[in-house]
Amino acid sequence: MMNKTFHANRIKFNACVGFNGIYDIEAYALGYLESVQILIESTIKGKATLDAIVYPILYSARHFIELTLKHQLSILTYINQIVDSRFSYRIIAQHNISWFWNEFKKLSKIDNRYIPLIQESNEFIDDFSEIDDNGETFRYPYSTDNNKHLGQLYCIDIIDFYSRFQLLSEKLNEIGFLSSLLLEEYRQRSFLCNKSRSEIESIAKKLPSINTWHNENFKIIKANLKDEFSLSSNQLSKIISFIKSHREFSSLIDNEIKIKELTINDFKWFLNQYDEFLKSKPQNDYFEYLQEKTDKIYRRLTKKVIASISQLYDMGYFRLYSEEYDGGLKYKMQETKSELIRVYLFGNGIVKENIKLGLQSMGQKTLLKAFDC
Hints:
- The protein is mainly α.
- The chain contains 16 helices and no strands.
- α1 runs antiparallel to α2 (50-83), α4 packs across α5 and α11 (286-300) packs across α14 (337-345).
- The radius of gyration is 28 Å and the shape is globular.
């Protein structure tokens, strides 16, 4: 029998829920965040009873924080497991904001980029923890011990509250954005000696050209790097070896590791064909012209070359990490040459731009020179 209260009817007003909608914890958190905004704006316009609506406003704000912190803990758990497969963590089934925040601070020690955001958010989280740590104060007038909630307060300025809450939600959004970036970064597994990929990149940028490493000054540079990044001699040696073997980072020390699938001659030829394609593209008989160009590239370039250029396009378009080249190339080798040519190598003027970005992310200085011809 159909539930007469919870069912689908009017298309315009059917809210997608469960497996039919965005059913993750972020969607729930967003709903509570938007509820705060809508309820306060309605109150400001005189469309609600302030002394009554204050409770769902405060509860929604608090629950947004709880859900956001729970989600962040799950991300940080995954990042810690990437770094150390032995890492084990379980989120306790409870509601205390202070507990979630303290756990977040513990797990976020995996990367020091969280530190300033934590410092900027502490005061706001503590304010909520002080008034409603367990999620009961804004939901019920009395505690389970029959004590009056909010007895220490007489009034809450809803405008001041909203101003503070907006600042906190911005900080939590920044934390969420950082976590998303770090999740992708750590998935590359380019960390070493307790240093993140970002820190290793910073070390690479501070190293001089590999051609000067025989100079006495290089010893001084290494000593400074050990002090700055708190590294032992052995750790720094491992990181330097890693930098020398890493396509992107090695280019920072003038040690280019060329991709073997694509030669400068094949790449120049392709760029000439693409320029000709854009310049001569007819208004009529376009698909016949496209087929002609596709056939020409198909005959001249091997599948590996075509797959390589296609992956470089994706590297630039999606702003992928250089580590993702090999996996993407392997995947594209499973597609047909014709499909790769049509999907990746022809289109509007952004093809060359994205390929160039892909080459830059890979540190391919030789191939980049083809754009200057």
